[in-house]
Amino acid sequence: MDVVEVVPTFEQYAFTFGGVAPLRRVTPGTALRLWSDDAFCGALQKTTDLSSEKVDLRFVNPQTGPFHVEGAEPGDTLALHFVAMEPARDWGASAAIPFFGGLTSTDRTATLQDPLPDTTWIYELDRAANTVTFAAQHTDLQIALPVEPMLGTVGVAPPGGEVRSSLVPERFGGNMDTPQMRPGATCFLGVNVEGALFSVGDGHYRQGEGEACGTAVEGAMTTTLIVELVKGGAPLWPRLEDDTHWMTVGSSRPLEDAWRIGQVELVRWFGELYGLHPMDAYQLLSQISEVPIANVVDANYSAVVKARKSLLPRATAYGGLHDDLRRRAATLL
Amino acid sequence: MDVVEVVPTFEQYAFTFGGVAPLRRVTPGTALRLWSDDAFCGALQKTTDLSSEKVDLRFVNPQTGPFHVEGAEPGDTLALHFVAMEPARDWGASAAIPFFGGLTSTDRTATLQDPLPDTTWIYELDRAANTVTFAAQHTDLQIALPVEPMLGTVGVAPPGGEVRSSLVPERFGGNMDTPQMRPGATCFLGVNVEGALFSVGDGHYRQGEGEACGTAVEGAMTTTLIVELVKGGAPLWPRLEDDTHWMTVGSSRPLEDAWRIGQVELVRWFGELYGLHPMDAYQLLSQISEVPIANVVDANYSAVVKARKSLLPRATAYGGLHDDLRRRAATLL
Amino acid sequence: MDVVEVVPTFEQYAFTFGGVAPLRRVTPGTALRLWSDDAFCGALQKTTDLSSEKVDLRFVNPQTGPFHVEGAEPGDTLALHFVAMEPARDWGASAAIPFFGGLTSTDRTATLQDPLPDTTWIYELDRAANTVTFAAQHTDLQIALPVEPMLGTVGVAPPGGEVRSSLVPERFGGNMDTPQMRPGATCFLGVNVEGALFSVGDGHYRQGEGEACGTAVEGAMTTTLIVELVKGGAPLWPRLEDDTHWMTVGSSRPLEDAWRIGQVELVRWFGELYGLHPMDAYQLLSQISEVPIANVVDANYSAVVKARKSLLPRATAYGGLHDDLRRRAATLL
Amino acid sequence: MDVVEVVPTFEQYAFTFGGVAPLRRVTPGTALRLWSDDAFCGALQKTTDLSSEKVDLRFVNPQTGPFHVEGAEPGDTLALHFVAMEPARDWGASAAIPFFGGLTSTDRTATLQDPLPDTTWIYELDRAANTVTFAAQHTDLQIALPVEPMLGTVGVAPPGGEVRSSLVPERFGGNMDTPQMRPGATCFLGVNVEGALFSVGDGHYRQGEGEACGTAVEGAMTTTLIVELVKGGAPLWPRLEDDTHWMTVGSSRPLEDAWRIGQVELVRWFGELYGLHPMDAYQLLSQISEVPIANVVDANYSAVVKARKSLLPRATAYGGLHDDLRRRAATLL
Q1: What is the spatial distance between Cα C326 and Cα C79, in angstroms, rounded to a whole number?
Q2: Domain A239-313 has CATH 2.30.110.10
Q3: Do D207 and C303 touch (CB under 8 A)?
Q4: D239-312, CATH topology level
Q5: Which chain D residues are within 8 Å of A190, Cβ to Cβ?
Q6: Minimum-distance CB partner of B162 among C165, C278, C279
Q7: CATH superfamily of C239-326
Q8: pLDDT digits (tens, 9 = 90+) for B230-250
């Protein structure tokens, strides 16, 4: 199986979902190896690089893509299977951007208070140990944390001719910022426009659930993924499958609505997987759901709703595509 | 170590936090073995028992307690260590109560729609297998699920002379409905009134995060716990510690505020545990927090914010009380 | 018609709805002339009196009452008609209390930011001109504003044995903080406990909708009201009637739920008033509702939903009680 | 003063803000007389026309425009003064669209309940009486209501290359659905792209605050407006001025954030108008703001925050542009 390598130039970065000409056309079944820049376009390299000085907020979350998937039509299901994610730099950066984040007022939760101090943290990567190191700014504490790479942003072009910033998580995926978007997972997205026009970006060397301060350990990433297409069957909201869980992602505000969306989507999926009536799926999921918050900082908040496969009878989605992709992925590693 | 057994009569059930005379006085260090009725006071015993007919919503979440803890004064910290929780009946019940739950309109999220069908599910307990069985009402699917006992409700009397329904999660604990409230965990609550006046109830044989339909596998429970008291040091919001995690629980509406509360409380706790400046704790927790939603159905919604101890330098809270209680608990089993 | 005068001592102030013995028993039809202290118990008298130093937040919104209404039983409707409200001091006070208010983070919308500067404004009352004067603290601007007296807090004891702080607006009324609670209005509240146990307080010499900074022009008030009782017919949420409008008040979080509650309650009332099917009432109100926000700062937020009588066919509520009370009130002035 | 008449063909309708080529170029100072179709593109003409059958939800809120304003650059302020709005058909339509509206679950506030019955109401226009008539569907009640024409949608192209549906209210204006957008008002919008690219649509013959069921008395409209441009001075969020009030419009979710945005924007404007420090503006507005909810049904909710000019010292905004436009408008009538 061949792997197509793509390293965009800065001029090729996309900053929206929709509204951008395809970077490349790919056929279903293609494996891609994609380099993506970090959320700050690499502007934060040391702790004295402050976001208010170095980061142009119009140009954040650069996307690698969009890719036009041959044959994809509205109503189809795009499947992206993540084979591997490797840090592409030796450091990651995180920042408390003024009036951005979960424990500060923002342009939406607007108050008259002063912002928190604009602060940047740099996480050195130790490839041998596979860790990034948190270094406190106000004391001497340093803590090496395992690298757990993930992508903040995976999405397709929106419907209705909309064009959305790459900071937005929505029905079309986008900036969901969930640690579940990691190697071994398959992401299913409904196709809204011909060619699907998907892109990825916003690599995180690790991220806590909620992404409290608004930024993870942001880092350039090399992502290997396999593109597949299922004709029809578009889910209303993003679905994820890995070897252990069925998952959905809801994104809205307030956060309970993000949860409602994800929970209803999983009720719907359980109807497909197990033939369950909505009331029975509602009941069963009430007793087995795992609900890790994804982000409480983006334009919409995101919640993941998960069900552990080992608790459930065997079932397959999309014709067993995830398992098939796992097998194909194994040939790439 | 002696264990004091308490099995309340129906007349002794408490349905509020505060406003009730103590059921009993206990000294710090006491181990209690408490029987608690299920959330429905046992009214749902078969699938034809509908909540709208059998459940008096003024008498739900019966509490066992309150217990007056000798020496507890406002500003102190009550520690409750859960040694064991054992199903006290051979079945649990769950229900979709009209206009109650997460995927329905409610008295607050008021709409003009009809309610979902009033439905009851009964989960038979298999003590040998340690499972409860979900049985679909509309199809034949049955699934045996592991028993993972927890308490929905653990709380003390509120401050300011308030008396709150046992359906309410708040700063004083209460109906937080988190699966983290399980054997092996220590719950720290700020004391608001002399004697603390804590109670427990709302046993769940298992519950998914979010408690989507509003009710878990509700079951009578026998809970063994050890009561301890720390003078001073009252946390602003409930804290939990187990062998693997530091945890806080925030409860409010909308759900993002519950999360904010929990996240800020953990920032505060990390200041105590590691001497971290709030900005550094904010940053560190942004990369390591786990945020399982507790409930999106109660009078307030609850979010848990957790940090895994194994990622962090060794630290102890409240003079190492949790470890000490674990040792004491071992002598009881 | 006699008027019963009540001026409570400080020791007689109530700080909760429920949980307090009646100050006095009254029979339906009684006119009361009630003195109430301001929200700060008079602690802010000059701009150098800062709330963080002078105000004990456990003792705010002192209530005059509660009054036990003879014959009132759960399910009945208490009607309070406001005849007159007169400033009882020559100044009002307002304050930006740290971490309280609408344009600051709070204990619920918790952030890591510093509070806004603790600031007090004093409004001198000009009785002849019937104005209070805003005086800017940072510039020389002074503006005389009309006195438009209202009560922030009107409520009865809650159901279910709950006791709630006088800072809380809820189904039982309470701290709704709406400028509609003014002379000429009749407030209808469902009775939850024998005797209803109503109280009033939190006088405002004037208040903007939203009560943005968390405090109005807070002032001691002398309120003349007539107490009436309707057997049965308890509304689910507070209703208001004046000569021009039908009104309901919803209180919850987030603010859209407060609105939903009020809008549904008015749909329900329109069913009673005009025999309208809920879908028709929903439609009609969609075209005529006025929705002034009451507060976005209290433990629950409050929204008022109004319908202008002059747009509608003539109808009467509660047997024409409001008109009758207006006539009786005229004999008192 | 000449008036340029524009009546678009169906093919010329725009359904987004941004992403559409200008319909026409206009110079500042131009008066336009614009025909706009109703929100349903005229598809609902009788009560048996149900929205689920007749309305293609991809083509709602058709816009007349966009207009490229000569000389408008990002950072400038576009002023649109509404001279007149005249119903362009003899009937208006309103509908309870399944899963759309304020008193139903939606795609965001997702529940498992059935939708409300899909229902259409037709309002006959009486030009002589200047009324539209509500006709109940389930009873015989008919009520003639005054025509109070307004535009639901007034907006410019968004920043950052985004393209948004004409159903969205945001920083760029859009589907704010406030009855304040009526003849006599001047709307100030920040320009985000060269030419501003404004459009208008979604005429309402009348609308209640909140637009509870999701649709007003929707009607084709002929709107006369004057376009002006102020170099620089772009407000962060939409501002409105009429002869009696200063107003701002915030749009977000939850509703309290929409309010916060509007209230902060008015604090900011009061700094410009009266030289007030933010804390003083916060205080003054706490006592005088009027806060009519605009909509609780759109992609974002909208709140209007108003201050009555007659309470305040005389001040002018944008060089007295509103007064000047009023004078110019008078020459057109």
Answers
A1: 12
A2: no
A3: no
A4: Endonuclease I-creI (3.10.28)
A5: none
A6: C165
A7: Acetamidase/Formamidase-like domains (3.10.28.20)
A8: 999 999 999 999 999 999 999
